[in-house]
Amino acid sequence: MDEPPSRDAMAAAATAPARVWDLPTRLFHWVLAATVLCSVVSAKIGGNAMVWHFRFGYVVFTLLVFRLVWGLIGGHWSRFASFLHAPSTLRRYLSGRHTPDEHLEVGHSPVGALSVFALLGLLALQVGTGLIGDDEIASRGPLNRLVSGETASLATGWHESWGQYLILAMIALHIAAIVHYLVRKNLNLIGPMIHGDKPVPPGAPVSADSSGTRLVALALLAACAGLVSYVVQLGG
Fold first, then answer.
1. Rounded-to-integer distance, Cα 101 and Cα 93, Å
2. Of 95, 158, 173, 214, which shows the fewest CB atoms inside 10 Å?
3. C-beta atoms surrounding 184 within 10 Å
4. Looking at residue 209, what is its pLDDT?
């Protein structure tokens, strides 16, 4: 007589690895992380390194524009619509009253989604203030001449103080959340962001990640880089 399946076997049967994070989203994540790190280091070094600080800022600008568009046309779990949740959904998730068929933990969870939007927003604000800022010593944003001195002063103050500190705080929280999920819930969030797959319940959507979608992403990235170059040159 056959033995009944174990609990682990039943759990494995209930989920199967599937593509969640498409390659463009994964590359965006890691390139953004590396670029932000290099931007922070170059700013701390100062001097001649500020040339590279601006270059890294332009790369972040390009990546943010790319992510904005990719959030509309990318793989299912990369689209903003998949993790833009109503407040009621967030409350149910925090209280543990969500149902499995909602698939709230396949992509970005409601809490994770808030951190994603917050970090993207802070990075966009940091890029914007950097473009128009002026430290009145050696660094001036390429669009500085398009704004008043008062606006430039406010932008510089934010960029050099609250802006960078809030971004560093968000990064620290992000890392803490990854460790929490790994240690307390035995969930590895880094692996899927490297290879793209994670176990998903039956019926959960998967993300398209074909050669065609990757070529679209490459063309989009090139277009975003061209747009950023055009915007930067508007300052003359």
1. 13
2. 95
3. 8
4. 97
The answer to whether 103 and 204 are in contact (CB under 8 A) is yes
The answer, yes or no, to whether residue 2 has pLDDT greater than 90, is no
pLDDT in tens, 104-143: 889 999 999 999 999 999 999 999 999 999 988 878 999 9
- Look up residue 10 and give its two tokens: 């039943």
Share of the chain above pLDDT 90, in %: 78
Give the span between the Cα atoms of 81 and 79, in whole angstroms. 5
Residues composing the chain: 236
Nearest to 206 by CA among 113, 79, 94: 79
Query: What domains can be seen in the chain, in order of their start residue?
Result: 19-196+221-235 (1.20.950.20)
Give me 64's structure tokens: 């943010």
Give the pLDDT band of residue 56 (cuts 50, 70, 90): very high
**DSSP code string of 100-136:** GGG-TTTSS-HHHHHHHHHHHHHHHHHHHHHHH-B-S
